[in-house]
Amino acid sequence: GEEEEEEKYEKQREMIRTLPKGRGWLTKEIILYQGCWLPLNWGLEGALFVQNHFKARPTDIFLAAFPKCGTTWLRALMFATINRSQYDFSTHPLLNSGPHSCFPFLDLYFSNSSSIAANLDALPLPRLFATHMPYSLLSKSVTSCGCKFVYIWRDPKDVLVSKWHFLNQIKSKDLPQLSLPEAFELFCEGVSEYGPFWDHVLGYWKASQESPNNILLLKYEGMKREPAVYLKTLAEFMGVPFSPEEEEEEEGVVEKIVELCSFKNLSNLEVNKIGVEHFSDELVIENHNFFRKGQIGDFKNYLTREMAEHLDSITMKKFSGTGLIF
Ligand code: A3P
Predict the structure, then answer these.
(1) Which amino acid residue places its CA nearest to atom 17 of ligand 1?
(2) pLDDT value at position 111?
(3) Atom of ligand 1 nearest to the CA of 65
């Protein structure tokens, strides 16, 4: 009952107090839990919720990513693709609501709210969820139930720059801003929300090697260069391929979705210029923060050559033998 729940929650708090703490980029501190640095109020409590309460279904499709790798873009693409027969492009819901309201961000469901698990049960199928959690934190009941994961990742140099901008931008004015050299140091050490970056990618990469039908790895850079090609792969993976027979391809549905979800289109919509996403009471973010430049290689404008080379050398070492290096 409720008391039992409360007791469990208190035990959890106790456990959390014993975990290593590090400097947070957004909040004062982040917590090292099972090899991953997480903020307390989403992240860690979200991970515990998923581990303790969440029941995945074989039809569920997860969008997983390290923060700032392209979640906003993929959310829009996945939503538009799955629901393409329901909506007209001229009145599409993405024109009036921010991409983050399309489907839930799992990490925000806290460990003490089993009623939320019931709400999630009521979502239409297939359920779509976004998460920043590393693969290793997902319980066996989730990873082995047959559900699918779309994982997007990106050049860590651009991830660092994007993350540094974003978190400083949305940070409470009461907390000091993180300087770029500090952010760089911390990022290299793996100390940032959901870090280390490399372990995050490797976790999903390994899983994709083992079950390629359940995990699709996408790279931001590749998708920027050939969005239509990637979108077709994505649709096929999600079980809703574009059909030449029904003339979807001929009608240009692929291109229409690519266009609808493009940086240029989304970032210029009223809802994304002045709208706000209410993730939780503590996490309210103005949509425009999710759209900065949307380019490949913006790190060149911020990192010194030495910094860039150092990050590359870490990437080379960590990703050697994987085929992930570009
Ligand atoms: P930059 O900061 O480099 O511009 P996330 O969505 O995971 O938070 O990642 C945010 C990054 O994706 C930001 O990168 C943002 O500008 C970019 N982005 C957002 N929407 C995009 C879109 N529709 N197409 C391409 N990039 C997009």
Answers:
(1) 294
(2) 47
(3) 7
What is the reported pLDDT for 311?
Answer: 98
pLDDT in tens, 271-284: 999 999 988 777 88
Residue in 68, 258, 262 to alter for ligand 1 test, most ligand atoms within 8 A of Cβ: 68
ipTM of the complex: 0.99
Q: 50: burial class by Cβ within 10 Å (0-12, 13-18, 19+)?
A: buried
Which residue's CA is minimally distant from atom 20 of ligand 1?
Answer: 73
The answer to whether 200 is a known catalytic residue is: no
Angstrom CA distances, 264 to 206, 242, 290, 293, 296, stand at 34, 24, 13, 9, 14
The first and second tokens of residue 144, run together, are 């082995």
Q: Using DSSP bridges, classify how beta strands 29-33 and 284-286 pair: parallel, antiparallel or unpaired.
A: unpaired
Residue length of the chain: 326
Spans in the chain with pLDDT lower than 50:
111-112
Sign of CA dihedral 295, 74, 200, 223: negative
| Strand residue runs (E) in 132-270 | 148-153, 215-219
* CA–CA distances in Å: residue 206 to residues 58, 235, 318: 20, 22, 13
Distance 70 CA to ligand 1 centre (A): 5
